[in-house]
Amino acid sequence: MTNTLTVIDQGTILAFTFDDALRYHGPLAPGGVAHAYKVIERVLEVLGTDGPVERRELVVTTSHGGPGVRDTFELVTRSVTEGRYTVDPALARPERGTTLANYVFQIDYRGKSITLIIRDAGFVVDEFIALVGKAEKSAADLGRLEVLKLEMTERVMAAPADQIYDVVPSAVA
Fold first, then answer.
1. What span, in angstroms and rounded, lies between the C-alpha atoms of 15 and 153?
2. Less Cβ crowding at N or C end of the chain, within 10 Å?
3. How many helices (H) and strands (E) are present in the chain, helices listed first?
4. pTM across the whole model
């Protein structure tokens, strides 16, 4: 289904599975966990060409404020507790529409900076974004939202990371 995310921490190789990330986060936002997992998988492919990256040197900036995203980055990189994780709404791409605008991630590592942007390929659906943003949710809305979360999680985890997120080189960090 997916590769294990492998990083180095002070000389020790650590490997994380998607199930590890789900257990760490809990059941609230499995889709956010899936997206962050695939972003990290893609980052490790791009920045780890010489082997596993040092987890504590990854700096994360994203316009996505979801808890599943945050917790997955924390598990793998420790960036939240160490102050290397920032939610910056200015990174959003509103010209891409409400559904895709916040699925933007900038990762800095050892003088390199890359930006990952979700492809417009149906990984996130309009109905999901509309329900998440709905102020007052009925019981039916909440039930539908749970279904949409699981469907999105399955779509994202079934695809290779390079088919979900495009990498755009950024200015040097």
1. 21
2. N
3. 5, 8
4. 0.95
